[in-house]
Design goal:
Elements lengths: L4 E9 L6 H10 L5 E2 L12 E2 L13 H5 L3 H16 L12 E6 L5 H14 L8 H5 L3 H10 L5 E2 L7 H14 L5 E8 L4 H9 L29 E9 H7 L5 E10 L12 H14 L8 E3 L6 H15 L7 E3 L2 H4 L6 H15 L1 E2 L22 E2 L4 E8 L3 E8 L3
Helix pairs in contact: 3-6, 7-13, 10-11
Length: 412
């Protein structure tokens, strides 16, 4: 008998707030977390805007020694994980810890430390390179640091699949629980990769919005005036438990994690398949694995980057996967408010779905004033919408053609 996986705790560090409740409140109200870059001097760059996490102080979440041995992305993940554990009132006995896992994804890991230590090597010499550089930059350290912080002695998994990374964590979590291998998984994703070199590279690729004069209006998924995505950072982490354990603890259950689907376009290093068939395959797989009909879906938290190719391809994918029902589904893009969290984007999409299921409120796609010609679904423009949501999916598509879709449902 397959064990159900349920979500019992949420934690978030985002450009909109340093808690899940603050982040959700601003998402619901359609606030933007995009502004001019403050973490470094961007005056020489063509792109001078980003969705930064503001006011984050590691010392509020961990001791100084621990924080110095973590990259910024791992600090975000630990902070979000601690909030999620507190929200779930999670306490693990010695006997339970070997059956508790972490699955924390990222796209770039500790890339900021790579840039920093390369600078130290070039300007100060080999002796000035940090002895902690390797564990600082390693992508698995978000998962490992969460495990060390909370005493999780089961698997520590760290999938890296570009902008689809965050969704892999939830598929892994559901599989760990449904197979009976684990009873608890801390699952999510995080990213902190804002650096002049990264901004310059993506700008030269023409992937980023250059709307420096209007930061809050720069991220425009599905709009005819869109000109690229906005770089973001942050982390979202959930406590996912077996149904049996959650019921035994008599804890709040936000939603059921039904699984997900994965695919690869096998087409191009950056461009999606024109017809959306690769992404549609992931959506169809998620529905099949979760045992849910396309007509049951009420809400889709879109990948919705605001790039010319992605928005059209995703629209086509939704139509391919859902058929005529695609026109009845509410679709919204949280990246319009928080930018693109890369490896954390999928976890933010799950967050949007879980809160929509819990509260019956679908967050908006802000800055959507004139939908593009080939973007003709219901993207919940400008203002949140009240709607009962029994089943929701969230999409994530990464460079290299990696596609992910996670399915969530109201717990019954």
């Amino acid at each position: 008998m397959t064990t159900k996986a349920v979500i019992t705790g949420i934690g978030a560090i985002t450009p909109l707030g340093l808690t899940a409740s603050e982040s959700w409140e601003k998402l619901r109200l359609g606030h933007s977390g995009v502004s001019h870059i403050t973490s470094f001097d961007a005056s020489d760059l063509d792109v001078q805007i980003a969705a930064e996490v503001k006011g984050f102080l590691p010392d509020n979440y961990m001791d100084l020694k621990a924080s110095r041995r973590m990259s910024r992305f791992a600090q975000f993940c630990v902070a979000a994980a601690k909030e999620a554990a507190q929200d779930a009132k999670l306490e693990l006995t010695t006997e339970e810890k070997p059956r508790a896992a972490s699955a924390i994804a990222t796209g770039a890991g500790g890339i900021l430390n790579t840039f920093e230590e390369m600078g130290n090597y070039v300007t100060k010499g080999p002796s000035r390179v940090s002895p902690f550089f390797i564990p600082l930059m390693a992508p698995n350290m978000g998962a490992c640091q969460v495990a060390m912080t909370l005493g999780l002695r089961g698997p520590a998994l760290a999938s890296t699949a570009a902008c689809a990374s965050g969704l892999y964590s939830f598929i892994e979590a559901q599989q760990l629980i449904s197979s009976g291998m684990c009873d608890v998984v801390l699952a999510g994703g995080g990213e902190a990769a804002l650096h002049p070199v990264a901004i310059a590279a993506l700008s030269n690729m023409r992937a980023l919005s250059r709307n420096n004069n209007d930061p809050e209006g720069a991220s425009r998924p599905f709009d005819q005036e869109r000109d690229g995505f906005v770089f973001g950072e942050g982390a979202v982490v959930f406590v996912i438990e077996s149904e049996e354990r959650a019921l035994r603890r008599n804890t709040k259950i936000y939603a059921e994690l039904l699984g997900g689907g994965l695919s690869c376009d096998a087409n191009h290093i950056t461009a999606p398949l024109d017809d959306g068939s690769g992404a549609a395959q992931a959506i169809e797989s998620a529905l099949q694995i979760g045992g849910v009909e396309a007509t049951d879906i009420s809400y889709i938290s879109a990948h919705g980057t605001g790039t010319a190719l992605n928005d059209v391809s995703e629209t086509k994918a939704i139509k391919l996967a859902l058929g005529e029902h695609a026109n009845k589904v509410a679709v919204s893009a949280t990246k319009s408010m928080v930018g693109h969290l890369l490896g954390g984007a999928g976890a933010l999409g799950v967050f949007s779905c879980v809160k929509a299921i819990e509260e019956g409120i679908i967050p908006p796609t802000i800055n959507l004033h004139s939908p593009a010609e080939d973007c003709d679904l219901d993207y919940v423009p400008l203002k949140a919408r009240d709607r009962e949501v029994n089943y929701a999916i969230t999409n994530g598509f990464g460079f290299g053609g990696q596609n992910g879709c996670v399915l969530l449902g109201k717990y019954h």
